[in-house]
Design a protein that fits this description.
Strand content: under 5%
Structural class: mainly alpha
Largest sheet: none
TPR repeats: 98-131, 132-165, 166-199, 200-233, 303-336, 337-370
Distance between the termini: 43 Å
Protein name: Tetratricopeptide repeat-containing protein
InterPro entries: TPR-like_helical_dom_sf, TPR_rpt, Ycf3
Signal peptide: 1-24
Radius of gyration: 28 Å
Organism: Flavobacterium ammoniigenes
Length: 543
């Protein structure tokens, strides 16, 4: 999602600024305007339409109709009305003509007619050259299109009109963050925060800036502040969990400190439960989810909490309990394809492969465009059931549905290379992966494997090192164990696997059959390590 500098959408912001200046108002117009002011867009649309039938030259009604039709994504109808508004607004009405050009520019942007977008914004600015919001909106569009130099010019121009505009500083900071000019980004975002310490978007962006500079403490402090200002902002809570990978104790301390005056709060407690789960502290996470489910109660929708608890059970290796929660969710809504996919994953982890395939088949029927189901079923076919032809068919379908999913290409490439001896086709998939993954992600990286298969082992090792440095998670340490084992680096593989266990890896069934680890599985060190952690898991969970 592209970060925005302010919460209001362009059209909402636009209409807030419009005052009811029409002189000769019909009864239909009055009803429509009152309905719109009260948020009743359906009634507003009906009566603005009636007004333009009686008064075809009503510029204001055409204007409002255009905006309302844009909200409905009926862009051709919207464009017709805004053209009429421009036709009927007098030349002397510079403010309304400017606003109409903005709407026309926004319609052009939605229609991907970019040249016209900026042509109409230029006309709007010509009529209101001191109107800051025009530069903000245009700067946002430039940013979204990657035209950062033009976005920068607009944000800088705003500061010549208003030297204390927080959105301009926020825009510049966001630009510099995108360009990886972290010192400048930090400086501009700090200025925005100094001007308004409740400007949470700037805090969120500065947290990203700190994180990229490996200033993990500062990143955590900023993102916790964002959560305290906007506790229901899910993106910020996800960022907090990511940053916690580099300092769990600080993250937990700050989270507890911020939430101490709210003994039980749905957002804070959910975040704490996720934090526990992120760091393999599953008992604490499950206890927190149990309390949340009880606290929220039957009068409210608790399905999302049941889902969270189910995934926590699954990650904890408690597959029967995860499946119980998924069963509850499926009984409540047997049309939710995602829950069937997740239950399939739990069955796969539990070694019940046919049940997993059955759930994936149901999910495919409910959502035939979701590539993930085909990828997962193909994985089961090739790795667990050794049905290579079926696997290849599923991987091909998954690639067709989502040609940019690197993991599907990795699995298909390996199958082609190792099971069908089609080296050229396999190398083609590995090369595509190497071009797809331009940035390190928190999870799901597989470029390191592609580089290994392309015989670029030193690059693969360096990339794996970079991944672990930036995102030292349980999953990434397991990926490192697999990569090192494939390279026959037994000591490094065992150390990475040990760290993965320490961070909460309880997927023992998967580990036991993962052929990436074949080079270390017969060693006494692996057997001892696996046995130790598996026995610890059984004791802790009374199994």
């Amino acid at each position: 999602m592209t970060p925005t500098l302010f919460q209001k959408s362009i059209f909402t912001f636009l209409l807030i600024l419009i005052t009811n200046l029409s002189c000769a108002q019909s009864e239909n117009y009055k009803i429509a305007y009152e309905a719109y002011s009260g948020g009743d867009n359906e009634t507003a649309l009906e009566y603005f339409e009636k007004d333009v039938v009686e008064n075809p030259n009503s510029a204001y009604s055409h204007f409002y109709l255009s905006v309302l039709y844009v909200i409905q994504e009926k862009l051709e109808v919207a464009e017709n009305h805004i053209d009429k508004a421009l036709l009927y607004f007098p030349e002397s009405s510079s403010t309304m003509r400017s606003k109409a050009y903005v709407v026309k520019g926004d319609i052009a942007y939605k229609l991907k007619n970019i040249d016209n977008t900026f042509k109409y914004y230029a006309l709007a600015i010509q009529l209101r050259p001191k109107e800051i919001d025009l530069y903000l909106d245009r700067g946002q569009y430039y940013f979204e299109l990657g035209q950062l130099d033009k976005a920068e010019a607009d944000f800088k121009h705003i500061l010549t009109i208003d030297a204390s505009n927080i959105y301009a500083y926020g825009g510049l900071g966001r630009n510099y963050l995108k360009e990886k000019r972290y010192d400048l980004a930090e400086k501009k975002l700090t200025k925005a925060i100094q001007l308004n310490d409740l400007y949470y978007v700037a805090l969120q962006l500065r947290a990203q800036t700190y994180f990229e500079q490996k200033k993990y403490k500062e990143a955590i402090l900023d993102i916790v502040e964002v959560i305290s200002i906007e506790p229901d902002d899910s993106d910020s809570r996800d960022q907090f969990l990511t940053y916690s990978l580099n300092d769990y104790e600080l993250a937990l301390t700050e989270l507890n400190e911020k939430s101490k005056n709210a003994p039980f709060n749905e957002f804070w407690n959910t975040t704490r439960a996720r934090l526990y789960a992120k760091h393999g502290k599953f008992k604490l996470a499950i206890k927190e989810f149990d309390q949340l489910i009880k606290y929220v109660g039957n009068e409210n929708n608790i399905d999302y909490l049941i889902y969270e608890r189910a995934t926590t059970f699954e990650n904890a290796g408690l597959y029967d309990k995860a499946i119980e929660d998924y069963n509850y969710l499926i009984e409540n809504d047997p049309t939710d394809a995602v829950v069937f996919s997740q239950r399939a994953n739990a069955y796969r982890h539990a070694g019940e492969y046919q049940k997993s395939i059955q759930d994936l088949n149901v999910s495919m029927e409910l959502d035939p465009e979701d590539y993930w189901n085909y990828y997962m079923r193909g994985w089961i076919y090739v790795e667990m059931l050794k049905e290579n032809d079926k696997a290849l068919e599923d991987f091909n379908t998954a690639v067709t549905l989502n040609p940019e999913d690197a993991y599907t290409r990795l699995m298909r490439g390996r199958l082609l290379l190792e099971k069908r001896n089609e080296k050229e086709k396999a190398i083609e998939d590995f090369n595509v992966i190497a071009t797809l993954e331009k940035e390190i992600k928190e999870d799901g990286n597989c470029k390191q494997y592609a580089l290994f298969h392309l015989d670029k082992k030193s690059e693969a090792l360096q990339l794996m090192k970079d991944i672990l440095e930036k995102y030292p998670s349980e999953g990434n340490y397991y990926e490192a164990a697999c990569l090192y084992a494939l390279m026959n680096k037994k000591e490094e593989a065992l150390n990475a696997l040990k760290t993965s266990f320490e961070k909460g890896n309880n997927n023992f069934k998967h580990i036991s059959i993962d052929d990436d680890l074949d080079n270390i599985k017969q060693t006494p060190e692996y057997i001892s390590l696996y046995t130790k952690w598996f026995e610890k898991f059984k004791v802790e969970n009374n199994l």
